[in-house]
Amino acid sequence: MDRLYEICDEMASTEQFVTLRSIMEKFYGKPISKLEGDKDYGRLKKQLNRNDHAVEYKNGRDFRDGFRYKEGYEFYFRSEEEKNELLKKDGDERRLFLTGGLQMLFDGKSAQEHLVELECVSELQNLSLVKVLVKYLGKWVISFKYIQGFQNLMKKTVHPHLLKEYNSRWFLLGYVQQEDGTWEVVNFALDRIVYNGSANDIMVHVDIPFKKTPKDFYANYFKDIVGVTRFDEEKLEQITIRTVDFKVHHLLRTKPIHSSQTETIPFDQEKGFGEFSICVIPNLELQARLLGYGKGLYVLGNTPFRQRMQDVISQLSELYK
Predict the structure, then answer these.
(1) Which CATH class is domain 237-319?
(2) How far apart are CA 300 and CA 288, in angstroms?
(3) pLDDT tens string 53-69
(4) pTM of the predicted protein model
(5) Which of 26, 31, 85, 250 is the most exposed place for a label (fewest CB within 10 A)?
């Protein structure tokens, strides 16, 4: 498999366009006259289906973004412009373009860079890991060294399922088997993974069966939280937020904190407040979102989350004395 990865990397990074036939010929060191008739076709096809570095081309299947291939597994383009646009990309961009993955590698560019821009901190550590990890998602068990709590260096073995961006920071989520044999979803901040660009930084375990999630697992996983951190020991809380600033109230109306948010009291200019309600599992991301509105709102009620907010604000107050 390592040799197959090397071939796919090499071919996808050149001016050649990768085809299943060309990969097979290089891998087996012999000309292939008829793919389906070759004894190695099924074996390599199965391997390539697990390898996002390469694109498997089979007659009759259209590919995305305007280019297709014809019988004989040779490319043709609907226009010369399409071909030239692909040739402009460097090796990594071309590979991701061909595999239908992330096209512009989060470098702040886009085909319409003067019209649309996404928030991106280009100095974020290990941003390049996004394009490395995407090929393992849902397929391969991997290991890497991780700085736990910004202090302890630990080896982690993960069944990776999802890459998620939150607040300009990237996270890898996947199953980690605990000492008692149970499985737990863990999120890993990419900037805390030890990565120096070496192939040995991310180890692939081809001998370990991959553990997938049930259908719609992550949709349900994120349903009750803000951000990416979920503490299973925490319970859903009905949290009432009182706004005391007209602008802040309307910011919350147009930019809800959570999908469960409802406006329970419209802002009353005479009384000087309005209220919203959310039903979530509290975490640090929610705490940070609310603190970001400063003195424009506060949490009502006698709940554990309100007490945590009071503790943080008291500590902040001490720092500013």
Answers:
(1) alpha beta
(2) 17
(3) 333 333 233 332 323 33
(4) 0.64
(5) 31
